[in-house]
Amino acid sequence: MKAFGTKLLLAASLLAIGACAKKPPKELPPPPVDNSAQQAPPPMNPGAAPGSQADFVASVAADRVFFATDSSEVDQPGQSTLQSQAAWFARYPNVRVTVEGHADERGTREYNLALGDRRANAAKNALVALGVSAGRITTISYGKERPDAIGSDEAAYAKNRRAVSVTVQ
């Protein structure tokens, strides 16, 4: 009798487990469609609006060129930077730019304003020579009033002797 009870309990368990089994759906969903070939390529600089200052900074070699002490001559690395900027400006012909001229803290205020002006105009002239319309470019000199690096050593001076291109929307 005990063996019959065990078999009955086992059969009831198997029926209960079988009742809980998942039944396959009558109709299967369609297979996934591969849309990877139809999707547009991601933007070059995700998060930056095309033609914006953020896009400009992310797309060009640099937004600034650096100068030697008391110089407003654009050297070869500066030329390369301005070439990449000119290429970006060619892609966005409606974007205007302000070139800011800066100097380090040495020298009088008047001298540094004049030096910053020469640096901004040197960068502007290089951009014009690379095909950017002069009408799109304005210049301003901040002299030593807006330093990029704080300090009174050569490393800080080198960072502050610069011309910075800032797009104008």
TrEMBL record:
Q: What broad class describes the main subcellular location of this protein?
A: membrane
Question: Sorted alphabetically, which CDD domains does this protein's record hold?
Answer: OmpA_C-like
* Keywords from the UniProt entry: Cell cycle, Cell division, Cell outer membrane, Lipoprotein, Membrane, Palmitate, Signal
List every stretch annotated Disordered: 22-52
What is the residue range of the signal peptide feature? 1-21
**What Gene3D superfamilies would the database entry show?**
OmpA-like domain (3.30.1330.60)
Protein topology in the membrane: Lipid-anchor
Q: What does this protein do?
A: Part of the Tol-Pal system, which plays a role in outer membrane invagination during cell division and is important for maintaining outer membrane integrity.
Matching entries from HAMAP family are given as: Pal (MF_02204)
Assembly and interaction partners: The Tol-Pal system is composed of five core proteins: the inner membrane proteins TolA, TolQ and TolR, the periplasmic protein TolB and the outer membrane protein Pal. They form a network linking the inner and outer membranes and the peptidoglycan layer.
Which protein, by its recorded name, is this?
Peptidoglycan-associated lipoprotein
Lineage in the entry? Bacteria, Pseudomonadati, Pseudomonadota, Alphaproteobacteria, Sphingomonadales
